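To: structure desk
From: M.T.
Subject: fold request, one chain
Message: Could you run this one when you get a chance? Sequence is below, nothing fancy, just the single chain.
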Amino acid sequence: MKEQPTPDTDVVIVGGGFAGVAAARDLSRSGARVVLLEARDRLGGRTWFRESPLGRPLELGGTFVHWLQPHVWAEMTAAGLELEPSPGVEEIYWLAGGEVHRAGMEEYTRHVVPGMDGLTGLAREAFPQPHRPLPLTELAREADRTPLTRRLEQLGLTPEETEVARSRWTLSFNGSPDEGSWAQALRLAALCGGDWRMMSEANRAYTVAGGTGRLLEAVHRGSTADVRLGVTVTAVHHDAHGVEVVCADGSRITARHVVLTLPLNILDAIDVHPPLSPGKQAAGERGQVSSGVKVWMRARGRIRPFIAFASDDYPLTMAGTEYEQDGDTILLAFGPHSAKLDVTDVHAVQAAVRQWRPEIEITAVDAHDWTADPLSGETWFMARPGHLEHALAELQRPEGRVRLAGGDYASGWAGYIDGALESGRRAAREISTALEKEKETS
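Reply: Done. Structure tokens follow.
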């Protein structure tokens, strides 16, 4: 690309999820001109709070937040947003040895503790500063190279304890725990002070009162970015002087810098010229673990509050009660393999729920398959072995005037809304600094 002395804008941000919106706001505050391009007809990325045919608004994507997540909590505090607690649980079902087990929380916890303690007990030693995981400690490097289930096999657990632990991490990975890194478990626990119980709470216990859309609006407030929805970017050309962003409709935008908020699994969806580094390309080709689904269901009648777990051998790895709705019950479930469950098929979802509760009648379902969505290709980020040692620093490194941002590239809560905010704000800070230096030398 030839030098563009007067680019159309200072920064183009590709993608309007939390990372893109946060970056656009911070850059706007610094005085930069920003164009934000989003291929969908809405902002929010892999979060999506909307009205549901099940009778009430529901979160189709990322949902859970916690005060342990510093970027989320700062935004919620500034905006005066409140937490909404998830419903309680009166009984737990789990599949082990091909049989359904049912108990109260106390008995179930006895089966959970050995595996969770064994997998997370070294969290603070491995990641003493979990928001700055690099450079890796020797223990973190070892854990990063070790598949989670290999570490699980080393713990000497009973078969039932092993299967219970596997089911919990199937839910966390939203995919097969065989493909995930032991470091992922340690890293998440370290973010919660080394306490896996708090980690479980952060993953499930609270949502944004009124929906994640309210949090997105709070982050977007104050942004002066030119937001353009329904615009698909196909290519980015960059050199020492600037960038040119090419859109599917043939339009082109020149800028000084560009931020790409593509999830790792679709990092190759935009042609970048010159290409991204071999390290970034290799990380994109390897991708990350999550390949599952999230599905809401309406069940006939009122159902006693429960939660159920299963390993990745089953189409659903977790299901539980969430809301009462006009005499019926709204259930939430997750499955580890998108290709193995059609979340739009009531009968298929019904059969999956009956693996625990054959008496429950599902009358309607609502879901968005993020793994099959070409604009996401995954649900939430979960690391494969070797990711921290070989990929994270490279993915965070600017490629000239091209930067990656998003929850997949966070140092702290990678795969969470908090990680997206962290990554987007880091990109904005770095670009603001670069723009200031460019002004000084122009």
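Reply (cont.): The mean pLDDT is 96. Let me know if you need anything else for the meeting.
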